[in-house]
Amino acid sequence: MNYIITFLIAMVPLVELRGAVPYGIATGIPLWQSLLIGVIGNMLPVPIIFFFARRVLEWGADKPFTGKFFTWCLKKGHSGGQKLEKTAGERGLFIALLLFVGIPLPGTGAWTGTLAASMLDWNFKRSVVAVMLGVILAGLIMGTLSVVGFNMF
What we know:
Layout: H1 2-11, H2 16-26, H3 31-43, H4 46-60, H5 67-88, H6 93-102, H7 110-119, H8 124-152
């Protein structure tokens, strides 16, 4: 059951792999399995986000019930993408997206990175590879911090 919960946590926006890997390790799942489950769970929604999230958010931005949240998501994705473009320039977008997803800070991750890539019409294949490498990097960082943290107590 812990394997399924770890997988599902990795799919949740904002929590993603940053919560799934520590949860998996804390529940006794070995590090490499927690990483594998977390990466797969975190990457599963990426194509759906890339191709459909912007359309759904734009559709719901003017609706009474979803408008504020959907508008916030659109702004977050667009501003994140613009910051990456401004910081990295055209040539460094791949590395910038990888690091944006890979450094586990609040508001960064596969969901936001993919949404930003979609909003700015970046190449799908290059975006997915950058996001996947970023997810792996974030998993390694979170796995290391979790193992070190759990061994300290």
